[in-house]
Amino acid sequence: MGLLMRPQASFPLALTLRSKRGAALGDVFTFASGLYFRGKLAYTRAFGQGLVITPGAGLVDPDRPIGLRELKAWGRVRVDLGDRRYRRPLERDAQELAARLRPAAQVVLLGSIASDKYVELLLDILGERLLFPVDFVGRGDMSRGGLMLRAARSGTELIYGPVRGAVRRGPRPPRLPKAPPARRSA
Fold first, then answer.
1. Does the pLDDT at position 139 exceed 90?
2. For residue 132, pLDDT beyond 60
3. How far apart are CA 81 and CA 83, in angstroms?
4. Is residue 1 a contact partner of residue 14, using CB atoms and an 8 Å limit?
5. Please, are residues 110 and 131 in contact by the beta-carbon 8 Å criterion?
6. Over the stretch 102-123, which tens digit does the pLDDT of each residue have?
7. Is the Cβ–Cβ distance between 176 and 147 less than 8 Å?
8. pLDDT recorded at residue 174
9. What angle do CA 52, 58, 60 make, to 5 degrees?
10. What is residue 175's predicted lDDT score, i.e. its pLDDT?
11. pLDDT value, residue 110
């Protein structure tokens, strides 16, 4: 994130982030985490709507513009449920989301279920409606990102299972085979 936030940075995303309008949250997070967040964004756009868990602002639409000031403020918030600045907005937005959902609606978590940073809070609010891609167990960020990118490109949704009662940490699965190059449109 440091490179993006440097006052001397002159590449397009840095300039957009510093502009009055700001840059799309999804673009900023993709810059920061590369393949992992790019996979999440592509997957979400292919199969549904998505919200991003942020430090200090709760659940945010990935297309929402954010500015440098907001990004710096988020950088001062610990991503830890013990920090009210992180917990309260996330709790508020998860409760609002749960209230808006139809009774049979489900929510798919595209983050790690091994993390204590949000899983228990989301389970307390969403309960049995909280699902996750079962192939995520044991995979690191980059592997999950690659898995989501491949699913988005192929148009094949991943298989989901309930977070409640799931094995949250498992053995590392075999590496993903090398992906064929993405087709370029003319």
1. no
2. yes
3. 5
4. no
5. no
6. 989 999 999 988 888 999 999 9
7. yes
8. 62
9. 40
10. 67
11. 95
First to last CA, the chain: 33
Distance CA 119, CA 164 (A): 9
Q: Which two tokens stand for residue 88?
A: 């309260």
Whether residue 48 has pLDDT greater than 70: yes
CB contact set of 117 (below 8 Å; sequence gap of 6+): 79, 80, 81
DSSP string, the chain: -HHHH-TT--SHHHHHHHSSS-EEHHHHHHHHHTHHHHHHHHHHHHHS---EEETTTEEE-TTSEE-HHHHHHHHTS-SSTTSHHHHHHHHHHHHHHHHHS-TT--EE--S-TT-TTTHHHHHHHHGGGEEEEGGGTT--HHHHHHHHHHHHHHT-PPPEEESTT---S-PPPPPPPPPPPPPPP-
Average pLDDT across the chain, whole number: 90
Q: Which residues of 72-98 are buried (b: 16+ CB within 10 A; e: fewer)?
A: eebeebeeebeeeebbebbbebbeebb
Q: How far is the CA of 92 from the CAs of 17, 78, 79, 135, in angstroms?
A: 27, 17, 16, 29
Give CA–CA dist 147/137, Å, rounded.
12
Is residue 4's pLDDT more than 90? Answer: no
Predicted confidence (pLDDT) per residue in 76-89, tens digit: 999 999 999 999 99
Residues across the chain: 186
Q: Which of 68, 54, 62 minimizes the C-alpha distance to 9?
A: 68
